[in-house]
Design brief:
Two copies of one chain form a homodimer.
Chain A: H1 4-16, H2 19-26, H3 30-44, E1 49-52, E2 55-58, H4 60-87, E3 93-98, H5 106-117, E4 122-127, H6 132-138, E5 144-150, E6 163-177, E7 187-189, E8 197-200, H7 203-215, E9 221-225, H8 229-237, E10 243-246, H9 247-251, E11 258-264, E12 268-275, H10 283-301
Parallel strand pairs in A: 3-4, 3-5, 7-11, 8-9
Antiparallel strand pairs in A: 1-2, 5-12, 6-10, 6-11, 6-12
Chain B binds a DNA duplex through residues 18-21, 28-36, 38-39, 51, 53-54, 56, 161.
DNA sequence: GCCGCCCCCAAGAAGCGCTTATGCTCGATC
DNA sequence: GATCGAGCATAAGCGCTTCTTGGGGGCGGC
């Protein structure tokens, strides 16, 4: 087996014409060069260099090897370059999955910052929510998943084998029509909305809503359900019912005809980034994760 | 510095999908594979493989490396192939230099045998005699030189740094016109030809002739000098003088009108092959040398 | 004739790579 | 739900490789 290191040395010897000069060029001693050349000759089974007086000449086999060396070493260098570009965030792609419309502020901010910091990187964005997003992660179809979990949820997801990075604690707020009796209230307890018609969000949020309401002693009467947050806001604004939404979801929607009222006691969902332990070491993934965390801090502060 | 060995292992891991299988394919243990992959990841500074549950997936950097690997490894294999062909005498060239017309039997026999044994090898043949041929050797313009030296010559060549392989001891014979008084003699002493007109060979042979004659107490009267042996024979055959020639040179010429008489005391020249110590290790050179020696044994036997 | 350059050789020390042995995780099976 | 098999990680031990240092010899230039 010819080693690339040997080819590098052979080429240096061929160009400089001496072992000593090659050693200087490669940053090692002359005996090291001499030994490597001996090893290479032994491994190919034929002399490669002829010591004729002072000068060092290549044999035909040596010439053949040097001829191939440039291509091989160029290939190695190209490979190193490409990998270094990925490692150095000058290239590389991240496949990001986020829950639908949940990341309307976080993701754009993070991706904008990522692009500004590392213009060579590319991000693909898809929408899915757990458990689908976790499945995508585990099957290798994405690198990073944005998800959320409700604090104190009934069934905890099995994320034990994943890297779970909390990004943001997002509190729930009540949304009531602006003519509603509680529209001007400082805050509202969920029980006070027991008799209202409800407009629910996505299936998972709906489950959480039911759980919270049952904790307060009633079962909500759900008239509408949609996972489209602007639609929920619109329905509330039209006076068709009340809703409970994550604050982050409300923030990106203009609440026409609806009012946001703080919910007491506080119910929060935690927005997290999920990835595989190994993927967390991949530079592009780590950088994206970092920008998501930074974006989350920005949202939390505002 | 990426090592080719690592690429080979990475490729095996990528194709087999597991470290254990790669180890089996490569004939080493699983920890060896594991360690090499760790070393490779460390050397490029980014993960290359993602351990997701049971299966082993490539990261983007890993894919890039595998993509380059095939080309690099193919280059290495091609280089090994080419060198192995030279080492295995399936290819390769020898640049042979021989003294003019001195090798009319030796060289053709040897080269024919070489070609028969190793059809892929190529031999280039040039004519020169020492010191020119030695110069060509030292300057790297030829690989193997056929030369000769007279035993007991006045000036010994400085062949100390060369490989000198004696091939043949070639005795000198006298050539006299067939009507000459000595034409039927069993043998002739050089002194008996003191009064004859001489036909001399090449410059070096002429020098040797003069030296031998002076050793016998006379200076030959040289009427003609040519390094063309058939011409010498022709001149003698035409009765224009006598000559002393190497037996080998006479053998390849039909002695029309001339007779060969053994010379006493015996004067011999030694035909040798010369090469550089390092070049003697080159398979093609060694093989050619061997065939020359074998051809010489054949000539000596006949 | 001396000096400098360059190569080879030998010995010692450091580093590297492989193997064996062991523990752990995961997935399939009963 | 427990067991079993497969596969990876880790650690220890060993041998090999490879480097450096130091010394010797040869060749060319001043």
């Amino acid at each position: 087996m010819i080693e690339a290191r040997h080819l590098r040395v052979l080429r240096a010897v061929a160009t400089t014409g001496s072992f000593s000069a090659a050693g200087r060029e490669l940053g090692c001693t002359q005996p090291a060069v001499s030994q490597q050349m001996k090893a290479l000759e032994a491994s190919v089974g034929t002399p490669l260099l002829v010591r004729a007086g002072r000068e060092m000449r290549l044999t035909q086999a040596g010439e053949a090897l040097v001829r191939h060396a440039s291509g091989i070493l160029a290939g190695l260098t190209a490979a190193e370059e490409e990998v270094a570009a990925i490692a150095g965030l000058r290239a590389g792609r991240v496949r990001l999955v986020s829950f639908p419309s949940g990341s309307s502020t976080l993701v754009p901010t993070a991706l904008a910052a990522l692009r500004a910091a590392h213009p060579g990187t590319r991000v693909s964005l898809e929408e899915a929510e757990p458990p689908r997003s976790v499945e995508l992660l585990r099957e290798g179809d994405c690198d990073l998943a944005l998800a959320f979990r409700y604090e104190g949820a009934a069934v905890a997801e099995d994320w034990d084998d994943l890297v779970v990075r909390p990004l943001l604690a997002d509190r729930l707020v009540a949304l009531v029509p602006e003519r509603h009796r509680l529209a001007r209230a400082e805050s509202v307890a969920i029980g006070e909305l027991a008799q209202e018609p409800w407009i629910a969000g996505c299936p998972r949020c709906r489950g959480q809503l039911v759980q919270v309401c049952e904790g307060a002693g009633f079962t909500p009467r759900i008239d509408f359900a949609t996972d489209d947050y602007p639609a929920v806001v619109g329905l509330v604004g039209a006076g068709l019912g009340v809703a409970v939404l994550p604050q982050l979801a409300v923030e990106s929607v203009r609440p026409r005809g609806a009012r946001v009222v703080r919910l007491e006691p506080e119910v929060r969902r935690q927005i997290v980034a999920l990835t595989l332990p190994d993927l967390a070491q991949v530079p592009t993934v780590a950088a994206t994760l970092e920008q998501l965390a930074r974006a989350a801090r920005g949202v939390g502060r505002s």
